[in-house]
Amino acid sequence: MNPALTARKVEFRYGDRDILRGVDIDLFPGEVTVLLGPNGSGKSTLIKILSGVLSPRAGDVLLCGRPPRSFPRREMARLLSAVGQDPPVDFPMTVEAYVALGRFPHQGFFGGTTSEDREQVARALDLTELAALRGRALSEISAGERQRATVARAIAQGATVMLLDEPTAFLDIRHRVAFYEVVTRLAETCGVAALVASHDLSLCAEYGERIVLLSDGAVAAQGRPERVLTPENVRAAYGVEVACDRNPATGAIRVTPLRARPPGVET
Amino acid sequence: MSRGRVETARFGTVLAALLSALAGAVVLSTATGPVSIPFGGFVDAFLRGGDGTPARILLSLRLPRALLGVLVGGALASSGVAFQALLRNPLADPYILGVSGGAAVGALTVALFLSADASPVLPLCAFLGAAAAALSVFLLARRRSGVSPERLILMGVVVGAFLNAVIMLMVTLSPPGKIPGALYWLMGDLSLGTPRRVAVLLPYVTAGSAVLFLLSRGLDLLLLGDSEAFQAGLSVERVKTATYLTASLLAGSVVAVSGLIGFVGLIVPHGARALVGSGHRRLLPAAFLLGAAFLVVSDLIARTASPSGELPVGAVTALAGAPFFLYLLRRNGGRS
Q1: What is the CATH number of domain B2-331?
Q2: B218: chain A residues, CB-CB within 8 Å
Q3: Fewest CB atoms less than 10 Å from the CB: which of A88, B124, B136, B237?
C-alpha cells in the first residue's frame, strides 16, 4: 500500500541547534502510528514539518506524492489535519463553534454551513464525549476537556491524515483509552492515517500498530511495538530502566519503570 | 440544531435592537441643537424638499453631522475588531498600534501645508500615513521567529509616541491661523460634517467594512494562532495582510475627516462581543452598529452638554469609554 504521508531524510535546526537529523517516516492509510520520544527529542518539530507549518532544512515531505506546500491551503487541509500541543485556554467561543472551525476547508470564506458540516461537528462532539459541553465557553471547561475539543476539531476537519501532538497529555485514564479507541476506529472505518505523539508507553503498545521512537532528533527504532519497546531501546532513548513483558490480559507489550535512580542522580 | 436556530433568532433580535437604537440616535441628534426646529421643519426638509432655514439646518448641518458620526463610529469599531483579531489581543485598536497617529500625520501634511479643503485625496494621504505607520510597527516587531502580538503592541506604543511628537511639531510649525482648527481636529471632531465629507468618506467605509465582513471566517481562524490556523486551511499571511491593510484604510480615512477619536475602536468591540459573541460574521455588523450609535450619541452630548460651546467628541468618548471599559474588564474577571 502507498503511504499517505512520507518524510525522507528530514533535517531541521533552530539557530545552530540540530533538532532533526535525517528522519524517515511513513504513515499508511488505516494505521495508527505512535510517535514516542523524550521531551525535546523533536516530536513537535517533526509534526510541524509534516503539516507544512515549518519547512525542513533538508529532506522531503510528500503528502499523497506531493510536497505539502504545493497544495492550495484548503485542499491540503482537507487531506491533512493537525493539532498542536497547547489547547487554547482563552479562546472566546463555545466548544461547538470552536470545533466547527475545523470545517473551514470544506466551506471557504463565503460558503454557508451545510447539513454535512453540522453532522460532522455533531459526530466529532459525540466521539470526544463533548456533546453536553457544546454550549460552554472554551475558557470555562477543564484542560482535559479543552484537549478533547482540539481533537474534536481535527476530527471535524475530516482529513485522511491526522497528526496529533500529545493529545492525551491532560486526559484521565478513561478519556485516554477513549481517545485511542476513537482514533483506532477512524483508522479502521475511514482509512485515516494517524500519527499520535505520546508519552504513554504501555497504552500506545495496546493501540499503535507501529511505533516510531525518536531520540535526539533521529529515529532510534521503528516497527511493531514488541520490536521498539525493549529495555535497551527505552534505556537508550529515555535513560530509564524498564521491564518489558506481555500484559497477561491483552497480550500487548507492557512497559514498567523499575525503581532505580536514573543516571546522573547521585545519593 | 434548534440551538443554532435559537442563536440565529437571538442575533436577529440584537441586530434589530441595535438598528433601532442607531436610528433613534440619528433622529434625536438631528432634532437637537441650538435652534429648535418645529415638526413642520422636518416635513418641509425631508418630504417637501423645501429650502427654508430649518430645512437648510437639517439637511446641510445636522443630518450630515449625524451621518458622519455613523460612518466614523462604525468604521472605528470595525477596525478595532479587526486589529483585536489580528493581534489576538483585546487591547489592540488603531490608536495603540500607532495607525491613527500615522493617519494624523498624513492628513495634517495635506491640511496644514498643501490644501485646506476637504479634498478626496485627504483620506488617501491619511491612509498612506496609517499604512506606513502600520508597516513600520510590523517590521520593527518582526523577529526571525515571527511576529508576536506582545511585541507588536510594544512597538505600536513606541511608534505612536514618536508620531505624537511629530504631530505636535507639525502643529507648532504650521501657519498661525491654522493652529486652533488643527488642535481641535486632533482632539476628535465631527463638526466638519458636510454633505461633501460624508460623500468622500462613504466609499472608503463601505468598501473597508465589506472586505472585513468577507474576511470574517478567516478572522475567526486567526484567533487560533498562526500555526493552527494554517493547519486548519487558512492562507494565514494573505489574510493577515488583507486585514491589516483594510483596517488601516478604515482607521486612516476616518482620522482624515474627524481627527483622533479615541476609545471607540477599543471598547465597542468588547461591548458587541458581550451581545453577540466572538464569531466575526455576527461581531462585525454588531460592532459597526454599536460604534455608530455610540458615536452619534457621544457627539450629541458633546454638542449640547456645555453651555459655553462644543466639547471635542473625543473627550466625550473617552469620558464615557474609560469607565465602561473598566466595568467590562471587571465583569469578565479580567478575561476579556
Answers
A1: 1.10.3470.10
A2: 109
A3: B237
